[in-house]
């Protein structure tokens, strides 16, 4: 009997379901930020979370214990976007001070800048792809200080690598363009339409298995596409974001759900298979939160004026566990 109960609990802990999503609530919140959280990233294997904030701080958290391990201030350069490299205590971040738009590689261990590189890490190697307001997409290698490739586009680009590092996508002007990393200079090998949505691209991401792509746009649309055929599977609508905000969305680790912020600060979850909304949480915030799933965990994190760790409420899941 005890063994059967343990098996049921293991099954619940591994499977992300609608019931689990609907039970999720804030388990821990950090309210000591003096500005909005602008970016955050989970390390793929170490259990660390890093955040960037408008108060010019970079903070490192241990996810398992929900504790802040270190705070590093970037008063001189400011900080906007932040991402882990393959090393759990090394990050890259973009400046935000109006006069220096460089990107920096920072060792969190000893608070030293290593060299200038770019953002958007490919998890399988040391390569990066970045999109800029000057309508360029740059390809970088962490081991070299100069960019390894450049693409000029006709709009503000959103760019992302797939998990294997073989393909990267660039979204702008109502389309997602797919590039082979080894032959990008020949142009896109495929172009996917967003069904007439030509508003500004915000965030583009691949699911962990590479089979899906999501794209958010400034008018409040979250598009989900098949990454091989380019088929538009679903479009979800939230309140549009202001011109200086970014609408962020993310796949769950298993790719079965999409979670997104909204221009009114709310959070929504949809099923990829059915396209239906399965959970939502309203907010008193006036800006969309930064939002990320924790790799391999039944937990997501939102960042706005505070950092919140969302976990299942086990008391709400008692009946569900009994059914399993």
TrEMBL record:
WD repeats lie at residues 30-71, 250-280. Pfam families: WD40. One of its GO terms (cellular component) is Set1C/COMPASS complex. The keyword Transcription regulation applies. It comes from the Eukaryota. Its main location: nucleus. It is found in: Nucleus. One of its GO terms (molecular function) is chromatin binding. Keywords: Nucleus, Repeat, Transcription, Transcription regulation, Transcription termination, WD repeat. GO terms for biological process: DNA-templated transcription termination. Belongs to the WD repeat SWD2 family. This is COMPASS component SWD2. The lineage of its organism: Eukaryota, Viridiplantae, Streptophyta, Embryophyta, Tracheophyta.
